[in-house]
Amino acid sequence: MGAEIRPATINGENHSESVNIGAPIVLGLQPFALVDHIAKVDWSLLSQIPGERGGSFPVAVEELKHILNELNAHILPSTDNESLLKTIAGGSVANTIRGLAAGFGISSGIIGACGEDEEGKLFMSNMGFYKVDLSRLRLKNGTTAQCVCLVDEVGNRTMRPCLSGSVKVQADELKREDFKGSKWLVLRYAILNVEVIKEAIKIAKEEGLFVSLDLASFEMVRKFKSPLIELLESGNIDLCFANEDEATELLRGEEKADPDAALEYLAKHCKWAVVTLAQNGCIAKHEKEFVRVPAIGEAKVTDATGAGDLFASGFLYGLVRGLSLEECCWVGSCSGGSVIRSLGGEVTPENWQWMYKQMQTNGLQLPEPSKSSVVT
C-alpha cells in the first residue's frame, strides 16, 4: 500500500482549489481517515461487545463485521423521524475540525490518509462539504478505516474502531509544508499513532504551532499510560482535554485520583488544561487562573458521540479569537451541548442555530456569519 502523496479530489476535481487561500489556522492530525456508523441499540447487543461500555478501543475486522451484521436486529426505533443509522466522516479530530469550519468559520484542514474506496469518497465528500482543507489528505491504495458507534437508550456511546489493514499516514510522510503557516495542531492520543504523533509534534513546534491533545478514552489511558505520560510531560503539549473518566484514570493509583487533581497535574505541564464533566460542565486552568463553568441549556441528550470533540471546537474558537479562559469554556459548553441533541458527531443546521442562541444569551462573541459553513 504505497502512498500516493497528492491532493485529495472529489469527483475528479482538485478540492484544494475550493478551500480558503493560505494555510488553515487549525490543522487536525488524524492518521486514519475514518467513517462512523452510528446507531441507537438495545443493551443486548452491547453485552456482546468485548470491552467496557462507554469506552473506545480498536477491534479486528471480524468483530467489526459481526457488529455491523447484528445492528439491524438491535436498532431502537426512532421517535423523532431521525435516521436509524447514520454513516458519516468520523473520528475525534475530524469531528473537531469539521465543527470549527462548519459552525465557527475557522479555516481548518486535516492531515491523514484515506483509501480510494467508497468510505474514502464519503469521508472526503462529507468533510469537503464544510470547506475543510483536504489538500494534506493522502490518497492510498487500500481500505479506509471504519468505526461502529453504539448508542444506548440514554445517549451514552460505546465506540469500536476498526483500523486493521486500513491506510494511514506514516511519520516519515509528514512534511514541513503540511504545518507551515498554521497556528494550531489538534491531536488525539492513540497507541497505534504514537510515532506519527511524536513526529507531528516535533515539526509543529519547530514551525511555531500550538499543540492540543485529547486523551481519547479511559480505556486508552488505562492500557497505554506510560507513552501518554511521556507526551504530557514533554513540555510540547500546550492544551490538553480530558473527560471525567479519562482524568480519573490518568491518576489511578495515586493518593488522590479525581478530576480536580488531574486538572492540577495537567496544568503543570500544559499552558491550558481542561476537564469536561458531562452534565456538570467543565473545569479549566491556565497558569494561575482556574474556572468552573456549568453545562449550557436543557439536558436533551440523544447521543453523547462527539460531545468532547465539539467542546474542543468551541474552546479552540475562543482561543483563536482571543477570548478569556472562562469565555472559552462557555463557548465549549455551548458547542458540546449542540452535538448531543442528534445522532452522531456532526452538528445539524438546527442545532448550530440552537448553539448561536445560547452564545448570544450568554453574551459570547458569535462567529462571523459570512465565514460559517452552516446551511439553513
TrEMBL record:
GO molecular function: kinase activity
InterPro entries: Carb_kinase_PfkB-like (IPR052700), PfkB_dom (IPR011611), Ribokinase-like (IPR029056)
Organism phylogeny: Eukaryota, Viridiplantae, Streptophyta, Embryophyta, Tracheophyta
Cross-referenced Pfam families: PfkB (PF00294)
Protein name (database record): Carbohydrate kinase PfkB domain-containing protein
Alphabetically ordered keywords of this record: Kinase, Transferase
Domain of life: Eukaryota
Similarity comment: family membership: Belongs to the carbohydrate kinase PfkB family.
Taxonomic source organism: Solanum bulbocastanum
Carbohydrate kinase PfkB domain span: 81-345
